[in-house]
What does this fold into?
Amino acid sequence: MPPEVASPEAGPLAHLPNRPLDRQELRELVDRLAEQPGLWRKHVAFSADERHYASLHRDEYVDVWVLCWTPENDTGWHDHDTSSGAVRVVAGALEECNPRIGGAHVRTVVGEGSSFSFGPEHIHRLTGADEASVSIHAYSPPLWRLGQYSIDDGGVMRRVSVSYADELRPIAPA
It folds into this structure.
């Protein structure tokens, strides 16, 4: 499903710096946007078949999304190529899982009102932890490509490059 694109709006999205944002700035941005539901609430929708998401802003330095989740929504293992990012949960909760080769994966539940940021080296998967969860994501530089991973039963990890507009889902091991 192609992302729904929001029209440009005044406010914090119109006054971003003309340069890439670092991890802390991205986290501050998603935290500020969470406090302004008029910018994102109209894009909240849920589907039994796929995760709903909408672009709130995109320019040459940053892009911002609102994503809607159910427990069935699973991004699969992925990275954000050259982009750093930040996530703020504005409703419900998400489960973030980080791979650990040779041990149990690290699972963290990120609840409503919490945020986190990461660099381009970060590999994770996200799933909805509640029936109806909503999160705001910001990336800088803007997403163009992502890496999707599979991990086979023997622990071998493989990466496939995908477009930022593709729906992230778990991929089968090669």
Observations:
- DSSP finds one helix and twelve strands in the chain.
- Helices lie at 23-34.
